[in-house]
Amino acid sequence: VGMGNFDSREVTGYLSGALSDNLAGRLTFWNSGNGGTVKMVQGGYTNSFDDVGVRGRLLWSPSDSAEYELIADYSVYDAQCCDGEWSYISDETLTTFNRMANNLGLDRNLVFPSRQGDGYQGFGEKIDQKTYADGDGKEQFKHFGLSLRASMDVLNGHTLNVVGSARRWDSDQD
After folding, report:
1. Percentages (nearest 5) of helix, strand, coil residues in the chain
2. Global pTM value
3. Shortest CA distance to 22 belongs to which of 66, 78, 62?
4. Of 11, 21, 44, 101, which sees the most CB atoms within 10 A?
């Protein structure tokens, strides 16, 4: 269990043990995320995420010469992501942008940060961990995986290992 700045949190854990004389299992889970690391001018925060998942594992040993393992996992990752922040813009660039905005009839304060207020560093634009993006940048990733391993002793002391796996992921990005 952990907590930190930007409303970050993390919880992980597992349960593990014998289910019978020849069957063991393990269940792992996690949940982590934060409330966003960059303040949005129009209110709220962006660049946040939530990640939740579970992984199960079964190990079956029906005899001394055979072992089978099944592993499955599922996770969902939700993010409001990837909005940049202004960090350094030269005075020359600002002057050029101001001229362009005026000629196009744009309201500079709606599309570009002001140099006034807290955080102005005296040269270029202020550094304030704010973004001026107008999109929501939401994305979601779902992952599902499954694997099976069979290990069997065969003739003359050799071991046959067979492994099969599959993974599926879905992505929904705005």
Report:
1. 10, 55, 30
2. 0.66
3. 62
4. 101
